[in-house]
Amino acid sequence: MTINTNDGILFKTDILSEMGVNLHRGSKMKKESRRRKPRIDIFKVLICLILLVMIGFGTKVFMDQQKLSQPVANVGGEVSSTATASAKPNTTSAATTETPTYQPEEGNITINKTEAKIAPSKNVELKVNGTTQQVAWTSSDETVAKVSKDGVVNGVAKGKATITAKVGDKTVSCTVTVQKVKQLALTFDDGPGKYTPEVLDALEKYHAHATFFVVGQNINNTTKAYMQRAVELGCQYGNHSYTHPNFTKLSKTQIKEELDKCDAKVKEAIGVVPTIMRQPGGAVTNSIKQFIDKGQILWSKDTEDWKYRDTERLVKYVLEHAEDGDIILMHDIHPTTTAGVERIVKGLTEQGFELLTIDELSEAKNEPIRLHHLIGCF
Predict the structure, then answer these.
(1) Fewer CB atoms inside 10 Å of the end CB: C or N, the chain?
(2) CA angle 303, 306, 312 (to 5 degrees)
(3) What is the pLDDT of residues 306-318, one digit of tens each?
């Protein structure tokens, strides 16, 4: 086997030798790998230990800072000044946190009047809208008009003054003219009726007031609404009887019944009983005057709108003849009258008249309404 198969043996011997070498090397590598594993594990452990030490140190620093941010109480329960001197207060603590109040951003401010006319010793109230801040008021000429810290302007003497309201860096102003103001009362008889809203529209548009002497039988569910609107606009109501009879042809008992029934209807509509009245047609005697316990209001200018039914004539007459202190008679049951009311109100306003109720005119002229007297003007 050794001779005949020498090449094969040699061949095999070479293979085995080669395999032996490989096995030897493999055995050596396994031994080396077993020796290196402990070194790798120790290295990882060292890294982990270092990381743990760093994390622990960082945690300690964080906790120390947190402790510094808390006030330290001494035995007596007072806060130590040494603990709070170098630390900011803990604003996130539930005990000290307050819900912030929302303050809306200031926008544009406006004033309720940019021009106003008042008489000496009279006043007008100014208001600033669009702010919740304090308003600083000043007058350009206090010899003409003075203004209070609340925006109430008082007329002093004839002239003009600029009233300025300042809010922060924003200002608004009103030009106040102090002069003798002409005032009168527009009065409307025989309503309420379907044309009354036209009168109310005109009064509302020009911020004017009027007095309505109503007939009780004309007050119903529809016209009640007109009366309520008029009151909201600042108008006044007076008694004009229940059926519009001629008082000079009635007994005192009948007159009282007419007035009482109308009072009840007015109260039902607007919640108050009229304190003034007007005899239907102005028919009155001295006996009737003494009998009626209400302010008795007649007129100084009779437009006779009931007679002519002419809108153009009506407007022309009022605008040409109106005077300070007048009580002007019209009727809101005629469409030819109500069609001209807006022009009348606008024209009188442009002439410098202030349109007031009877009670307002009485107060403005300092002439009280006396019982058992007939009042035709103020």
Answers:
(1) N
(2) 60
(3) 999 999 999 999 9
Q: Which amino acid is at 38?
A: P
- Tell me which H or E stretch contains 159: strand 159-167
Q: Where do we find the tokens 């600042």?
A: 234
* Three-state secondary structure string covering 44-107: HHHHHHHHHHHHHHHHHHHHHHHHHCCCCECCCCCECHHHHCCCCCCCCCCCCCCCCCCCCCCC
pLDDT band, very low/low/confident/very high, at 107 (cuts 50, 70, 90) = low
Residue whose C-alpha is closest to residue 143's, from 161, 125, 165: 161
Q: Which one from 190, 263, 305, 331 is the annotated catalytic residue?
A: 331
Burial class (CB in 10 A: 0-12, 13-18, 19+), 224: middle
Active-site residue identified among 189, 263, 326, 332 = 189
User: Is omega for the bond preceding 192 within 30 degrees of 0, making it cis?
Assistant: yes
331 is catalytic: yes
**Integer Cα distance of 97 and 91 in angstroms:** 6
Element (H, E) at 110: strand 110-111
**pTM reported for the whole predicted model:** 0.60
